Amino acid sequence: MMIRVCDSDIIVTKKATVAKLKQAVEDAFSHLHTQGDCWISWPHVWGNFCLCFEHMKLLRDRDPIARYGIKNGDQLQFVRHTPIYTIAGGTSVEHSYGPDESEG
């Protein structure tokens, strides 16, 4: 299946997980390492951004992409991923609502 990310075609299987999709994105952009001074720190990218499909953040690496309804030819975007911090304890708490869940 082919998915578009930042105007690049990413090839993954229909049964791919979010982790496999992220690896395919890294592989697709690896050619930038050979073009001048450009260098991508993937730990930094994934620590601050995530892939998003129709307002759903793909945060759980083990989730199959089919769970989000991603199909051949769909477009994904990078979006800023910021954890929610508790004021008292200073620890971070994250929750991603999947396609079958809601906030309320």
Keywords for this structure?
single chain, 104 residues, alpha+beta, Ubiquitin-like (UB roll), globular
Name given to the CATH homologous superfamily: Phosphatidylinositol 3-kinase Catalytic Subunit, Chain A, domain 1
Rg for CA atoms: 15 Å
CATH hierarchy, class: Alpha Beta
- Name the overall outline: globular
CATH architecture: Roll
Percentage of residues in strands: 25-35%
Say what the CATH topology is.
Ubiquitin-like (UB roll)
Low-confidence stretches: none
How many domain units?
Answer: 1
Number of helices: 2
Q: Portion of residues in helices?
A: 10-25%
E-strand count: 7
* Helix and strand sequence: EEHHEEEEE
Mean pLDDT: 80
Amino-to-carboxy terminus distance: 34 Å
Describe the 3D structure.
This protein has one domain (2-93): Roll (Ubiquitin-like (UB roll)), CATH 3.10.20.90. 17% of the residues lie in helices and 25% in strands. It is built from two helices and seven strands, in the order E-E-H-H-E-E-E-E-E. The strands form two sheets. Strands 2-1-5-3-4 form a five-stranded mixed beta sheet. A two-stranded antiparallel sheet has the order 6-7. It is globular and about 35 Å long. 13% of the residues are buried. The model has no long low-confidence stretch (mean pLDDT 80).
